[in-house]
């Protein structure tokens, strides 16, 4: 019989965790491939695997497909790409928000970032007549940033500083107030309401390459900054005093990570509308699979968000046939019960 020494057990622990993470990572990558295939194949007109291959081949060669099914595939490619990019950004943003605030129910929606971006976009539509993606993007970034700072300041007032419950309450109150302002701006302006109501639901149906070209560089920079923050966020999880003892500038780390999270969320909100619950659900699932190490959790949350939003968009097309249900409605339908489960399990404890 083999006797395991303490040193052997300690060495086996990290190897076992690494193998488990590798298996989960492989599973997520396979899930992304499946989600992409389903997104390209399913919709108002379902296509065969051969038509998917033909459409992709023609697109890669810069040609227009001849078969109707292959043409449908080509038309779905930018939508699928936006779903992957937007889902990844929202999942990564949610993981950052939860790490920075040490709040298990933090996400861009609960902390008011989505609503702040929406309010500024509404005001731009109603009072400035904005129509371009760049204008949407600038206003969404401004609104998301201002509201995120406001919620953090309000949640930090009083004894104890920025506790999870205070931040959640400040975000909920701010979201309710800003939602009322959005309604107040829109109700007397029917034309603005018509423009806004489709955007407000949240979805990727209006994807095109020009929109992706505008937001992709911004999202890429924010994502890179987020991933570089992983070691610092691991230190913050040990507590502010321990992190400071390890040489971490706590305030600077929080500002940089929070800014990256706000940019990720606001940029997606500008082009796809305020899609809720992705940033809340995905990091929790990934934390159960990969553990709390941010070096694994952040990229896993991005991949998980891409899977969730791409599948939600595909499901919405099937549920609303011959029309479609926007992806934001599907994620909200799934996310509401998940939020209840999370609240019951975590009991609002800090991470």
Automatic annotation (TrEMBL):
* Chief location of this protein within or outside the cell: membrane
Compartments in which it is found: Cell membrane
Q: How does it sit in the membrane?
A: Multi-pass membrane protein
* Keywords, in A-Z order: Cell membrane, Membrane, Transmembrane, Transmembrane helix, Transport
List, alphabetically, the CDD domains matched: TM_ABC_iron-siderophores_like (cd06550)
Looking up SUPFAM superfamilies in the UniProt record yields: ABC transporter involved in vitamin B12 uptake, BtuC
List the Pfam families hit by this protein, alphabetically. Answer: FecCD
Q: Where would one find coiled-coil regions in this protein? A: none
For this protein, the parts annotated as crossing the membrane are 23-42, 80-97, 109-129, 136-155, 167-188, 209-233, 253-284, 325-343
Q: Which family does it belong to?
A: Belongs to the binding-protein-dependent transport system permease family. FecCD subfamily.
Instruction: Quote the PANTHER family the UniProt record gives.
Output: FE(3+) DICITRATE TRANSPORT SYSTEM PERMEASE PROTEIN FECC-RELATED, FERRIC ENTEROBACTIN TRANSPORT SYSTEM PERMEASE PROTEIN
- State the protein's name: Iron ABC transporter permease
Q: Which organism is it from?
A: Microbacterium marinilacus
